[in-house]
Amino acid sequence: MGQFDDVILLVSHDQIIFANNAYENLFGECCKIPCNIEDGFYKFIELEDENESFNYDFHEIVDIRVKIKTKDGCKWVWLRSNPMKNEKDEFVSSYIILTDITNRTIDVINKKATREKFFSFISHEIKNPLNMILATMQLIERKVDQNIYPEDILKHLDLIKRNSFRIMKIVNDLSSQTKIELGYRDFNPTNQDIVCFIEDICESVRDFVDINDTSIVFDTDAEEIIVGFDCEKIEKVVINLISNSLKFRKKEGAVVLVSLTHDDKFIYIKVKDNGIGISKENMDRIFKIYERVNDDRSIIKEGTGIGLSLVRDFAKLHHGSISVKSEVGVGSEFVVKIANTLADENKIKIHYKITKEERLQNIAVAFSDL
Fold it and tell me: Is the pTM here over 0.85, yes or no?
């Protein structure tokens, strides 16, 4: 028993009369034998209500999860207690087994919190555009009955289209995130000129950027870089980062700089803006799923909280990562790096093809919450 990872206690008449070596590892102190159970174990129990006291009948079988507070911080343990009786069926003592389940419990708590955020997100983000669509449809019906001019109806139809795009964006993001969470590795790199590819994206978004009183500039350290990358995912990465810059732009003189640099190991895709910046307390939250950093200073208050999480996951698929530098009032710079390697031509499944119209619709969907 001295070699077991689980803590094993033998208790008789409220006294701990045996404790193995794992006790010290779990609680951070030795158990002086014999000692009262309240001094040797109960004192570590952390209760939600300070006025409550932890107590259970160790004359009976017990199987519960409890939270303890040690010198190393809070932990979760699985407590099992079994009574031992003599031949007269009289209680003699009880042995208690304590298993450290901190990591498993934290994982469960985090998953529960994520699910709660998800359901809150679904309720808010999908219902809002749907309600807007339904309300607009009702207005159109009334105006048609009243023979209102078609120009007025077109404004409402544009509102319907933009909110439909918002729903499409949510569904697309959720679909991509679900595939990643389920371990579905939808990754299809092809060997392409990434300089030309990203420059085309910047040109395609220019009209959308101009509408939002912002200018966009593209820069590169090479005229051509052939590298293996998933075109669909890198397109989403670049569009998402540009969209993010627009959400946190300044009201006047906003500029987005998209640049491409490389070395022998990595390609670096940088999206820099002169916007409002990200506060220190929000820096750790921006890549967490369903976390929306809706700064009071930002022009746009909408957002799914999925985009940057997907950007991070897409970068990982390319054996890379994403980092950010930001200063409040100065701006932000996101850097996505992907491996500078070629794809195996024999493993390429589909060559990515997209028309100009399809790309413009993808951009319209991505910018629908601006």
Answer: no
